[in-house]
Amino acid sequence: MANSQRSSSLVDPRNGFCKANSTFYSKRKPLALPSNDSLDVTTFISSQTHRGTTAFIDAATDHRISFSDLWRAVDRVANCLHQDVGIQRGDVVLVLSPNSISIPIVCLSVMSLGAVVTTANPLNTASEISRQIADSNPKLAFTTLELASKLASSGISILLERVVDTLRAPGGLKVVGILSEMMKKEPRGQEVIRNRVNKDDTAILLYSSGTTGRSKGVNSSHGNLIAHVARYIAEPFEQPQQTFICTVPLFHTFGLLNFVLATLALGSTVVILPRFDLGEMMAAAEKYRATTLILVPPVLVTMINRADEIMAKYDVSFLRTVRCGGAPLSKEVTEGSFSRFSGGESEVRCGGVVVMGLNQTGELWLKGPSIAKGYFRNEEEIITSKGWLKTGDLCYIDDDGFLFIVDRLKELIKYKGYQVPPAELEALLLNHPDILDAAVIPFPDKEVGQFPMAYVTRKPESNLCEKKVIDFISKQVAPYKKIRKVAFIDSIPKTPSGKTLRKDLIKFAISKL
């Protein structure tokens, strides 16, 4: 995909394909981006005009925060972080928290200072989080008392969500502030002049799933985020002032970009659930008259399978849009959702373009103002010298310009929308004293999409069993990364250069179904 200058006479208006350079160009109009280079994404969003009233609702407590109260809280927290804690432009702040209204306030405050937000999955183990801390070197961590123990070994200063007995902070962690108190603190004296933020400054540092090994930090600048929000404003999937149900994790790029940033600019209301639960999600959709659901494919499959029960128990007449992504979505599931829930006209909308000819499969490369800067400490790895982002997705584009993602070059396992890197699990397996070799593959499952399955070669005379392998891994990883099936094999198939033939193992596993 590209947004660069090109001769319109060479581009097919139907699908955006230019035969001269074998590039697909977006059929959307170029974005009118702000010309001011000294602009942070928080200021850009807060300056948008709309008629929205309620910004966020906590579904668990029914606590609401209006747009005016939100921006007042963001400004107060930013002042406290700057004056009392010493957060400056370029400092990194870690967010380790379950979904809550607090996350948008913290993230927007941090970015307004020119500091960098990095997030961690609260389900991750302490060792997994410590590796991210070692790489990103945060100056401060925002967390809850329940999760603070996972930071105990880091020695990092923490900002807690609410008032607690500071003596209870685990591991001698230093509590430097309470978010709920910062939100109420009136500015004192003359306003302190903050460092000027540049659009090229890094705003967020989010970590990949680690397809080929350890996860890597991906830098996105304020300019990248502003372009993402600007596109949302220019061509929203939904009309302004809609009500969204958010069950996707806010630590993930999809949740952060959409529910912390883009929807605010439209004046929409986001109802935040702490975690996904189908019953709680549908109850919230009914209670708050939700117009939009954001789902991963396994959830949509469950909804289709339980459609009669859902329709009988909940009023979903206000629902207008279901957005689904994060894992493969079959044609059967898409059509099934229409037939079970649609009350009339239905539409599938897709976005994006690929580098190849029409109906030819190749790797998706992207280029545009919202594309991330690259990997932290290694921007060249995924960004070409000409600014193309290599996604690792295998795709094709049809005659109408619709993009279809068909596979991954690097074989991530998609479990309930979570991405699980096989290489990480393989490295752990090889630490077991009874395992000679191992390979991890995605095993298909109707309920969760895929789950990690391990092929293991035991050392001679070992009596290692499936349960022991599963237990060995489950103690070291987050729940979604657990191995759920093990098969023993004499040797792991590999190429002459020693690379695991994972696709051969996948075919073999499927043949046994």
Automatic annotation (TrEMBL):
Family matches, as CDD domains: 4CL (cd05904)
GO molecular function: CoA-ligase activity
Keyword annotations of the record: Ligase, Magnesium, Membrane, Transmembrane, Transmembrane helix
PROSITE patterns (alphabetical): AMP_BINDING
Entry keyword annotation includes Transmembrane: yes
Transmembrane feature ranges: 250-273
Ranges for domain AMP-dependent synthetase/ligase: 48-337
Cofactor names: Mg(2+)
UniProt domain AMP-binding enzyme C-terminal: residue ranges: 424-499
GO cellular component terms listed in the entry, alphabetical order: peroxisome
InterPro entries: AMP-bd_C, AMP-binding_CS, AMP-dep_synth/lig_dom
Family to which this protein belongs: Belongs to the ATP-dependent AMP-binding enzyme family.
Protein name: AMP-binding enzyme C-terminal domain
Species per Swiss-Prot/TrEMBL record: Arabidopsis suecica (Swedish thale-cress)
